[in-house]
Amino acid sequence: MKINVPMNVPSDKKRIYEKNFKEATKNTGKLFLFAGDQKIEHLNDDFSLKLNAGNSDPEHLFKIANSSKIGVFAAHLGLISRYGGQYRKIPYLVKLNGKSNLIKTKDPFSPALWSVSDVVNFQKQSKLRVLGVGYTIYLGSEYEVEMLKEAAQAINQAHQNGLLSVLWIYPRGKNIKQEKNPDLIAGAAGLGLCLGADFIKLSYPFGPGKKEATKAKEIITAAGNSGIIFSGGGKIDNKKFTELVRDQIKIAGARGCAVGRNIHQNKLEKAIKLANDLSKLI
Protein backbone atom coordinates (compact mmCIF):
# COMPACT_ATOMS: atom_id res chain seq x y z
CA MET A 1 0.00 0.00 0.00
CA LYS A 2 1.38 3.38 -1.04
CA ILE A 3 0.82 6.10 1.54
CA ASN A 4 0.39 9.70 0.45
CA VAL A 5 2.33 11.43 3.23
CA PRO A 6 1.32 15.13 3.50
CA MET A 7 4.17 17.54 2.89
CA ASN A 8 3.73 19.16 6.31
CA VAL A 9 4.93 15.94 7.94
CA PRO A 10 8.63 16.56 8.75
CA SER A 11 11.12 14.06 7.38
CA ASP A 12 11.98 12.81 10.88
CA LYS A 13 8.26 12.13 11.57
CA LYS A 14 7.47 10.48 8.23
CA ARG A 15 8.06 6.96 9.53
CA ILE A 16 5.82 7.62 12.55
CA TYR A 17 3.05 8.98 10.31
CA GLU A 18 3.28 5.96 8.01
CA LYS A 19 3.20 3.61 11.00
CA ASN A 20 0.13 5.35 12.43
CA PHE A 21 -1.62 5.36 9.04
CA LYS A 22 -0.94 1.65 8.48
CA GLU A 23 -2.09 0.77 11.98
CA ALA A 24 -5.28 2.86 11.81
CA THR A 25 -6.24 1.53 8.38
CA LYS A 26 -4.89 -2.00 8.91
CA ASN A 27 -2.78 -1.64 5.75
CA THR A 28 -5.84 -0.98 3.56
CA GLY A 29 -5.99 2.82 3.31
CA LYS A 30 -9.54 2.60 4.70
CA LEU A 31 -10.49 3.74 8.19
CA PHE A 32 -12.97 2.12 10.55
CA LEU A 33 -13.63 4.78 13.18
CA PHE A 34 -15.58 3.71 16.25
CA ALA A 35 -17.01 6.93 17.68
CA GLY A 36 -17.25 7.42 21.43
CA ASP A 37 -17.43 11.21 21.54
CA GLN A 38 -21.20 11.27 22.13
CA LYS A 39 -20.71 11.27 25.90
CA ILE A 40 -20.16 15.04 25.57
CA GLU A 41 -22.09 15.67 22.35
CA HIS A 42 -25.36 13.95 23.28
CA LEU A 43 -25.00 13.70 27.07
CA ASN A 44 -27.01 10.66 28.23
CA ASP A 45 -29.42 10.56 25.28
CA ASP A 46 -27.47 7.73 23.60
CA PHE A 47 -26.62 5.86 26.80
CA SER A 48 -29.86 5.47 28.70
CA LEU A 49 -30.63 2.23 30.51
CA LYS A 50 -33.68 1.97 28.25
CA LEU A 51 -31.44 1.27 25.23
CA ASN A 52 -29.74 -1.93 26.45
CA ALA A 53 -28.41 -3.53 29.59
CA GLY A 54 -24.75 -2.54 29.25
CA ASN A 55 -24.87 0.67 27.23
CA SER A 56 -25.26 3.01 30.22
CA ASP A 57 -21.81 2.08 31.56
CA PRO A 58 -19.08 4.13 29.80
CA GLU A 59 -16.75 1.15 30.04
CA HIS A 60 -19.03 -0.61 27.54
CA LEU A 61 -17.38 1.52 24.82
CA PHE A 62 -13.90 0.40 25.83
CA LYS A 63 -14.91 -3.26 26.07
CA ILE A 64 -16.20 -3.11 22.49
CA ALA A 65 -13.11 -1.30 21.19
CA ASN A 66 -10.82 -3.70 23.04
CA SER A 67 -12.43 -6.88 21.71
CA SER A 68 -13.11 -5.97 18.08
CA LYS A 69 -11.08 -5.14 14.98
CA ILE A 70 -11.68 -1.40 14.78
CA GLY A 71 -9.23 1.04 13.19
CA VAL A 72 -9.42 3.72 15.89
CA PHE A 73 -11.59 4.48 18.88
CA ALA A 74 -12.37 8.22 18.85
CA ALA A 75 -13.06 9.76 22.25
CA HIS A 76 -12.23 12.82 24.30
CA LEU A 77 -8.94 13.00 26.18
CA GLY A 78 -10.52 13.00 29.62
CA LEU A 79 -12.50 9.81 28.97
CA ILE A 80 -9.44 8.06 27.54
CA SER A 81 -7.38 9.12 30.56
CA ARG A 82 -9.92 7.52 32.92
CA TYR A 83 -10.03 4.09 31.25
CA GLY A 84 -6.98 3.89 28.99
CA GLY A 85 -4.78 2.29 31.64
CA GLN A 86 -7.05 -0.77 31.61
CA TYR A 87 -7.29 -0.86 27.81
CA ARG A 88 -3.79 -0.31 26.46
CA LYS A 89 -4.13 -2.25 23.23
CA ILE A 90 -6.91 -0.01 21.84
CA PRO A 91 -5.80 2.31 19.00
CA TYR A 92 -7.04 5.77 20.05
CA LEU A 93 -7.92 8.96 18.19
CA VAL A 94 -8.31 11.93 20.53
CA LYS A 95 -11.23 14.29 19.87
CA LEU A 96 -10.05 17.82 20.57
CA ASN A 97 -13.36 19.68 20.77
CA GLY A 98 -16.92 19.02 21.81
CA LYS A 99 -20.10 20.65 23.11
CA SER A 100 -23.31 19.44 24.69
CA ASN A 101 -26.71 19.47 22.99
CA LEU A 102 -28.29 21.75 25.63
CA ILE A 103 -27.68 25.15 24.07
CA LYS A 104 -30.22 25.45 21.27
CA THR A 105 -28.71 28.39 19.36
CA LYS A 106 -29.00 28.25 15.59
CA ASP A 107 -25.27 28.86 15.20
CA PRO A 108 -23.28 26.23 17.09
CA PHE A 109 -19.73 26.85 18.30
CA SER A 110 -17.38 24.14 19.51
CA PRO A 111 -13.93 25.48 20.38
CA ALA A 112 -11.05 23.18 21.28
CA LEU A 113 -10.98 21.71 24.78
CA TRP A 114 -7.44 20.34 24.37
CA SER A 115 -4.51 21.17 22.10
CA VAL A 116 -2.42 18.84 19.98
CA SER A 117 0.44 19.55 22.41
CA ASP A 118 -1.76 18.19 25.23
CA VAL A 119 -2.32 15.04 23.19
CA VAL A 120 1.38 14.59 22.38
CA ASN A 121 2.29 15.04 26.06
CA PHE A 122 -0.44 12.61 27.10
CA GLN A 123 0.81 10.06 24.56
CA LYS A 124 4.38 10.29 25.93
CA GLN A 125 3.23 10.10 29.52
CA SER A 126 0.63 7.34 29.14
CA LYS A 127 2.40 5.26 26.46
CA LEU A 128 -1.03 4.57 24.92
CA ARG A 129 -1.50 3.89 21.20
CA VAL A 130 -2.64 7.38 20.21
CA LEU A 131 -2.67 7.47 16.40
CA GLY A 132 -4.37 10.78 15.64
CA VAL A 133 -6.64 13.66 16.56
CA GLY A 134 -10.12 14.75 15.51
CA TYR A 135 -12.03 18.03 15.38
CA THR A 136 -15.64 19.00 14.56
CA ILE A 137 -16.46 21.99 12.35
CA TYR A 138 -19.99 23.39 12.08
CA LEU A 139 -19.80 24.80 8.57
CA GLY A 140 -22.05 27.80 7.97
CA SER A 141 -22.22 28.78 11.63
CA GLU A 142 -21.42 32.42 12.30
CA TYR A 143 -18.51 31.03 14.33
CA GLU A 144 -17.10 28.95 11.48
CA VAL A 145 -13.99 31.15 11.07
CA GLU A 146 -12.84 30.36 14.62
CA MET A 147 -13.44 26.64 14.12
CA LEU A 148 -11.77 26.63 10.70
CA LYS A 149 -8.67 28.25 12.16
CA GLU A 150 -8.50 25.86 15.10
CA ALA A 151 -9.02 22.87 12.81
CA ALA A 152 -6.35 24.03 10.34
CA GLN A 153 -3.83 24.56 13.14
CA ALA A 154 -4.68 21.21 14.74
CA ILE A 155 -4.19 19.34 11.46
CA ASN A 156 -0.85 21.02 10.83
CA GLN A 157 0.35 20.37 14.39
CA ALA A 158 -0.83 16.76 14.22
CA HIS A 159 1.15 16.20 11.03
CA GLN A 160 4.18 17.92 12.56
CA ASN A 161 4.09 15.16 15.18
CA GLY A 162 3.35 12.28 12.80
CA LEU A 163 -0.28 11.96 13.89
CA LEU A 164 -3.31 11.44 11.65
CA SER A 165 -6.07 14.04 11.43
CA VAL A 166 -9.81 13.47 11.06
CA LEU A 167 -12.39 16.23 10.60
CA TRP A 168 -16.07 15.94 11.47
CA ILE A 169 -17.81 18.52 9.24
CA TYR A 170 -21.51 19.27 9.65
CA PRO A 171 -23.30 22.19 7.93
CA ARG A 172 -25.28 23.91 10.70
CA GLY A 173 -26.59 27.37 11.46
CA LYS A 174 -29.21 29.93 10.50
CA ASN A 175 -27.56 30.35 7.09
CA ILE A 176 -28.04 26.66 6.27
CA LYS A 177 -31.39 25.81 4.69
CA GLN A 178 -30.74 22.07 4.16
CA GLU A 179 -28.09 20.41 6.32
CA LYS A 180 -28.01 17.34 4.08
CA ASN A 181 -27.99 19.05 0.71
CA PRO A 182 -25.65 16.84 -1.39
CA ASP A 183 -23.95 19.84 -3.03
CA LEU A 184 -23.30 21.35 0.39
CA ILE A 185 -21.92 18.04 1.69
CA ALA A 186 -19.62 17.88 -1.37
CA GLY A 187 -18.50 21.42 -0.54
CA ALA A 188 -17.71 20.31 3.01
CA ALA A 189 -15.64 17.45 1.59
CA GLY A 190 -13.59 19.87 -0.49
CA LEU A 191 -13.14 22.20 2.48
CA GLY A 192 -11.78 19.33 4.57
CA LEU A 193 -9.29 18.58 1.82
CA CYS A 194 -8.18 22.24 1.75
CA LEU A 195 -7.53 22.14 5.51
CA GLY A 196 -5.32 19.07 4.94
CA ALA A 197 -7.37 16.40 6.73
CA ASP A 198 -6.44 12.76 6.19
CA PHE A 199 -10.05 11.65 6.63
CA ILE A 200 -13.30 13.64 6.64
CA LYS A 201 -16.42 12.43 8.46
CA LEU A 202 -19.64 13.63 6.83
CA SER A 203 -23.36 12.94 7.09
CA TYR A 204 -24.61 10.64 4.34
CA PRO A 205 -27.22 12.70 2.43
CA PHE A 206 -28.87 9.81 0.60
CA GLY A 207 -31.14 6.89 1.41
CA PRO A 208 -30.26 3.18 1.34
CA GLY A 209 -29.69 1.34 -1.91
CA LYS A 210 -27.18 1.00 -4.72
CA LYS A 211 -28.69 3.76 -6.89
CA GLU A 212 -28.51 6.16 -3.98
CA ALA A 213 -24.87 5.24 -3.33
CA THR A 214 -23.99 6.13 -6.93
CA LYS A 215 -25.08 9.70 -6.22
CA ALA A 216 -22.45 9.97 -3.48
CA LYS A 217 -19.56 9.66 -5.94
CA GLU A 218 -19.52 13.44 -6.42
CA ILE A 219 -18.84 13.88 -2.70
CA ILE A 220 -15.95 11.42 -2.83
CA THR A 221 -14.50 13.19 -5.89
CA ALA A 222 -14.72 16.59 -4.17
CA ALA A 223 -12.52 15.30 -1.33
CA GLY A 224 -9.62 14.61 -3.71
CA ASN A 225 -7.01 12.44 -2.00
CA SER A 226 -8.50 12.91 1.47
CA GLY A 227 -10.63 9.97 2.52
CA ILE A 228 -14.37 10.30 3.09
CA ILE A 229 -16.01 8.29 5.87
CA PHE A 230 -19.75 8.71 6.35
CA SER A 231 -21.24 8.89 9.83
CA GLY A 232 -23.47 6.08 11.02
CA GLY A 233 -26.31 8.22 12.40
CA GLY A 234 -29.07 6.86 14.60
CA LYS A 235 -29.58 3.17 15.36
CA ILE A 236 -31.06 0.99 12.61
CA ASP A 237 -31.23 -2.77 12.02
CA ASN A 238 -27.72 -4.26 12.03
CA LYS A 239 -28.13 -6.07 8.70
CA LYS A 240 -29.51 -2.95 6.97
CA PHE A 241 -26.70 -0.86 8.40
CA THR A 242 -24.05 -3.28 7.13
CA GLU A 243 -25.62 -3.18 3.64
CA LEU A 244 -25.61 0.63 3.74
CA VAL A 245 -21.91 0.73 4.60
CA ARG A 246 -21.13 -1.85 1.92
CA ASP A 247 -22.79 0.34 -0.75
CA GLN A 248 -21.01 3.45 0.51
CA ILE A 249 -17.63 1.74 0.15
CA LYS A 250 -18.09 -0.53 -2.86
CA ILE A 251 -20.21 1.79 -5.01
CA ALA A 252 -19.67 5.37 -3.81
CA GLY A 253 -15.98 4.90 -3.03
CA ALA A 254 -15.96 5.89 0.64
CA ARG A 255 -12.71 5.02 2.40
CA GLY A 256 -14.23 3.43 5.46
CA CYS A 257 -16.96 4.41 7.90
CA ALA A 258 -17.54 6.07 11.25
CA VAL A 259 -19.95 4.32 13.61
CA GLY A 260 -21.06 5.02 17.17
CA ARG A 261 -24.66 4.33 18.17
CA ASN A 262 -25.19 1.56 15.64
CA ILE A 263 -22.48 -0.39 17.45
CA HIS A 264 -22.62 0.58 21.11
CA GLN A 265 -26.42 0.50 21.38
CA ASN A 266 -26.15 -3.29 21.21
CA LYS A 267 -25.31 -5.65 24.02
CA LEU A 268 -21.60 -6.44 24.16
CA GLU A 269 -21.60 -9.70 22.19
CA LYS A 270 -23.73 -8.28 19.35
CA ALA A 271 -21.75 -5.03 19.35
CA ILE A 272 -18.46 -6.90 18.93
CA LYS A 273 -19.91 -9.09 16.18
CA LEU A 274 -21.21 -6.08 14.23
CA ALA A 275 -17.88 -4.26 14.62
CA ASN A 276 -16.00 -7.30 13.33
CA ASP A 277 -18.42 -7.72 10.42
CA LEU A 278 -17.85 -4.07 9.48
CA SER A 279 -14.10 -4.48 9.86
CA LYS A 280 -14.11 -7.44 7.48
CA LEU A 281 -16.17 -5.44 4.99
CA ILE A 282 -13.85 -2.41 5.16
Question: What's the short version?
Answer:
The protein has 282 residues and is of the alpha/beta class. The chain has helices at 14-25, 38-41, 59-67, 77-83, 116-126, 144-160, 182-195, 210-215, 217-222, 238-252, 261-264, 268-281, and strands spanning 31-35, 72-76, 91-95, 129-139, 164-171, 199-202, 227-231, 256-259. The protein has one domain (11-281): TIM Barrel (Alpha-Beta Barrel), CATH 3.20.20.70.
Explain how this protein is built.
This protein is of the alpha/beta class. The chain is built from twelve helices and eight strands. It is globular, with a radius of gyration of 17 Å. α3 (about 60-65) crosses α12 and α10 (about 240-250) runs parallel beside α12. The mean pLDDT is about 95. One of its GO terms (molecular function) is fructose-bisphosphate aldolase activity.
Compute the gyration radius: what is it? 17 Å
% residues in beta strands: 15-25%
Question: Into which percent range does the helicity of residues fall?
Answer: 40-55%
Low-confidence stretches: none
Number of helices: 12
Task: Write the element-wise H/E pattern from the N-terminal end onward.
Answer: HEHHEHEHEHEHEHHEHEHH
* CATH structural architecture: Alpha-Beta Barrel
> CATH topology, which one?
TIM Barrel
Write the layout of secondary structure elements.
Blueprint: H1 14-25, E1 31-35, H2 38-41, H3 59-67, E2 72-76, H4 77-83, E3 91-95, H5 116-126, E4 129-139, H6 144-160, E5 164-171, H7 182-195, E6 199-202, H8 210-215, H9 217-222, E7 227-231, H10 238-252, E8 256-259, H11 261-264, H12 268-281
Parallel strand pairs: 1-2, 1-8, 2-3, 3-4, 4-5, 5-6, 6-7, 7-8
Helix pairs in contact: 3-12, 10-12
